[in-house]
Amino acid sequence: MTEHILPVGKGGASGAVNDFLKGLLSSGKVKAVLALQTTPNGRSAFPVLVSDPDKMRSDVFTPLMPVSTATILSRITKTRGSDDPIAAIMRNCELRALTELFKLKQADPANLVLIGVDCPGTFDLNTYSNFPGDKDISSAVLDPKEREKFLRSACRSCADPIPGRADIVIGTFGMDLEKGILVSGKTEAGQALLEGMGLDAFKDDGSREKAVSEVREAADRSREKHIAEHSDIKGSGKIADFFESCINCHNCMKACPICYCKECLFDSAVFNMEAHKYVSKAGSKGSFKTPTDTLLFHITRFNHMILSCVQCGLCEQACPANIPLMDIIIPIAQNAQKEFEYIPGRDLEDQLPMIFYKEEEFESVGDH
Amino acid sequence: MSDFEPVVVAFLCNWCSYAGADLAGTSRLKYPPNVRSIRVMCSGRVDPVFVLDALKEGIDGVLVAGCHPGDCHYQSGNYKTNRKMKLIQRLLKDLNMDPRRVRFDYISASEGQKFADVVTEFVQTLKELGPNPLKGECQ
Ligand code: SF4
Ligand code: SF4
Ligand code: SF4
Ligand code: FES
């Protein structure tokens, strides 16, 4: 690992990173950069793929995640991996989701240079677009009071806001942002990119490490609290209550970086029956709610994605019925991942639990 | 609850457990008549959604049975199903449904007695658990 300092000038931290990315493009070391950029009217921000250094206008610290960059990279590389180096700037939940997509063969790692950024959390889409114009939203996300009010529930309980599997990590926690940002090359590819950029070496006084562990501890505490507060959403009746107002739009599935099926079973005609079957089902049950497959959709979705769920909360953010999905997803994901001793997104070498088996576990699944 | 008769759906592998069930029948072994058998070409064909749908529809218990380790005609269908059923059990726990409503076992074509024993035991467990709480729910 090599650690450098990226000097911060008039453009602030975001400007410094933008200049850094511009430099990467101009040097020809990468052909394109995928980075968050504010939309022309400032109402949102999306990952933009830039190849002309003069068009590099990234705002990587914008506290908004309308889509997962992992989903975008899957679309870009799935048909065929990249022939030219592409640098992608990502938050840790996006990096972790991408690792899962690599394992699921839904994205190709060839020639991707992953640059992780420390993530203080993101705001909900509507919070962002309605944010008062006189306030700076990138500083608001660092302000304890604003965080308390606006941070997405997933970010409050973030599994890990510090980039793990990345070639380069851009570190802000524990750094004096008026002066410099930490840039560390974690892999050979990352180090090669940083070489010759004329960056000073980072002098470690321990404050970075201290800040990182504080951030992690705070997230862990808030996670435990979250789980304790929502331990009552149990019982099959309560599950039905929980999804009572679901309009069965499947937005949660579409926003999820892990749900990758081209055609979801629940978007197909599998569950359509002839009219007389509906009538006879109503007859045998007395009555039943329509659409008929809402609860089954959710339970099956859990079954498909829960072991790879990176708890990014994009499902909750996409829900038009304001169902607090993370109240149920955080505990279910935590329990399932613990039982299968699997941490999604940690390492490409960790095998997906459902495609692999160990010889010693062949006892029957019966009473226990 | 003594007169409660649980409804069990059993997904049985064509190459082993289905024949095992057949043998139990032709050998006139005694086992409870609560089982509705569905023949599948391998226990690996049992998509978790079959199990979840059955439970959601109010079926009291789902039995999945396949070939013994090493005997699956498609190499690893039974191993993978073993894991899939464990995941379903984990989910059921979180949805506060008793995980014992789902059972996976290895039953070969010659194990008529084992089939009868597994069914007897399973029906007994389900009687203790009582009816599926989702029965009659309008979902
Ligand atoms: S879940 Fe974590 S990494 Fe993802 S946006 Fe929220 S704080 Fe950042
Ligand atoms: S289920 Fe929700 S929290 Fe989990 S990975 Fe998908 S979108 Fe993110
Ligand atoms: S996004 Fe919300 S309303 Fe739509 S299917 Fe998912 S939970 Fe239901
Ligand atoms: S063939 Fe019997 S379990 Fe696969």
Structure description:
The complex is a heterodimer of chains A (368) and B (139). Chain A is α/β, with parallel strands linked by helices. Chain A has 2 domains: 2-228, no CATH class; 232-355, no CATH class. Chain A contains 15 helices and 8 strands. The longest helix of chain A has 23 residues, at 207-229. The radius of gyration of chain A is 22 Å and the shape is globular. In chain B, helix 1 crosses helix 4. Chain B has one domain (16-129). With 139 residues, chain B is α/β, with parallel strands linked by helices. The mean pLDDT of chain B is 93. Chain B is built from 4 helices and 4 strands, in the order βαβαβαβα. In chain B, strands 2-1-3-4 form a 4-stranded parallel sheet, with helices on both faces. Chain A binds chain B through residues 234-240, 265, 285-289, 294-296, 299-300, 302-303, 306-307, 331-332, 335-336, 339-340, 353-355, 357, 359, 361-362, 364-368, and chain B through 48-49, 52-53, 56, 58, 69, 76, 79-80, 82-91, 93-97, 99-100, 102-106, 125, 133-134, 136-139. The structure holds iron/sulfur cluster (3 copies) and FE2/S2 (inorganic) cluster. Residues 255-258, 305, 309-315, 329 of chain A line the site of one iron/sulfur cluster.
